[in-house]
Amino acid sequence: MTVRRPYANGFALLIHSMPSPLFQPAQAFASRRNSVDLLKMFTETRNLNLGKAINAHLIRAFQLDLIQANYLINLYVKCGQLHLARRLFDIMPERNNVSGNALMAGYFQAGFPLEALGVFKSMDLSQLSGGPNEYMLTTLLASCAEVRALEEGRQCHDHALKSGLVSHSYVRNALLHMYSKCSGMEDALQVFRTIPGFDILALNSMLNGFLEHGQLNYAMEVVSGMVKEVARWDHISYVAVLGLCTDSKDLNLGRQIHSQILRRGVEFSVFAGSAIVDMYGKWGDVKSSRRAFDGLLNKNVVSWTAVMAICAQNGCFEEALKLFLEMQLVGFRPTEFTYAVALNACAGLSALKNGDALNAHAEKSGYKEHLTVGIALINMYSKSGSIDDAKRVFTSMPHHDIISWNSIITAYSHHGLANEALEAFHEMLKEEVPTYVTFVGVLSACAHLGLVDEGFYYLNHFMREVGIRPGVEHYTCMVAMLCRAGLLDEADGFMRYTCVDWDIVAWRTLLSACQVHRNYGLGQKVGEHVLKLDPDDGGTYILLSNMYAKANRWDGVVNIRKLMREKDIKKEPGVSWIQTAILKMVVCGCVDNHEKRKSEKLAPLPSYNLDASVLLRSGF
DNA sequence: TTAGGGTTAG
Hints:
Largest sheet: none
Helix content: over 70%
Distance between the termini: 96 Å
Number of strands: 0
Mean pLDDT: 85
Strand content: under 5%
Shape: elongated
């Protein structure tokens, strides 16, 4: 027997050649119970050093038996020392369900579900008399759920049925959770039907499963059941229901849940708090979102990032950046998500310098390698006008996913580099499957190049071949494409005869083209239609007033102004544009000064709009 | 098992 001394750190540097039995009946400790009691105590108090000392002692005295080793594994796991737990596990000549599950649960809870499954696979099944027990089965199922291992999950289900372990409620819940993550909800529903009564854990799993699969109606049914039958929800229920209210835009239910949380005094978990902040923000109610955030007792980097994201998504870019600074002042370090949101805010402001600074900041903190950050950088540089930097970020990224490809394709297209966009698209096809967004970029590039035939080929053949149904964004690109090629009547016909739920953006595309191509007849017709569609859209008035100004139609300009007054949309930023339109006419000599003064009475011109030379310089 | 992010037409 070779025993090396001294044992480093008091821990066994074992001794693979040890003929064993390494595990001997206890003697040196007054009883094995003593050592077990000590190990339990040190586990509770997370006293790693004393645990190690006992470990060393037991080994020196050849007293370490299976049960003590299991307690030690548990102690190491609880102290976050997975490598020590693993080392001990690997040298144990005998193991059982408890040893396996202690290590597996350790890996799973530390976020390593694959390793947990690996431990199971490495175990000799003869050590597990009768296979995994209910504890190990639960850990196995949870790990399968995490890595979407449906086949292995089904094997666990078989075992649960054969062994009768399926009668344990936590095994059933774990099965339900596994199916809801890995397979369609039908399998989950079958398990759900075997669960008697109204189990909140099972209901949570069903709810989250339906939410994840986008089946909001079914999710709502589950919530109705919960409202009627379950008096006490847990935090997970609240978070899930808030998620449903966010997705389904159910303002009533969302507000009810929020006030219920406040009324019941349910302690605001940081999870539920962030979900509430997110919910109001996704409804577009930034004020309530901000108020909810300010009222949070528990904040963490996630809630800060959530409120920043809400600001940025609703156009409050400066606010988002202010929050980014504030968050760091109170001591939270940004994550890759936080950087992505902050970069997005810079993109919204075209704030190249701030974006550059954030780039350096992210690089220093080691977050630049993250896909999310790379994509946000591409977007920021592209929207700030620096396509070269966007390209540089893209080529220096360690990995590309479909979103990063979509980002660079869109960036090229926005910069009028349509050929580069199409090149990138074909390059992408070697690695990734295109998505809905990919074709928005591709078709917009075709529109820039006036490639009408190619555009229709992508729309009618390519997209269908890869199973993507074109949506209104794609069809709007087609309208823009026809318009760009000067085919306005064709664009008009395309819109009238294609069965698409056209939105204001699409109609405005055509209207704008009418203005550019001076097709005033069609423009007037389209304009009337667009005004009916949304009489409060300031942008339409801008386009129309510009068009009438170009057509020297003073009556048209005045009429637009009248309509704006009737609709009381003078607060729209477009108001100054009608004045600009009038001024343009004055500059061009279409309207004399008398008419101009008349117009000033109608709409007093702000001084910055009065300077005709500015307009002339701008190339009007 | 619960919260936040990055790509979308004019």
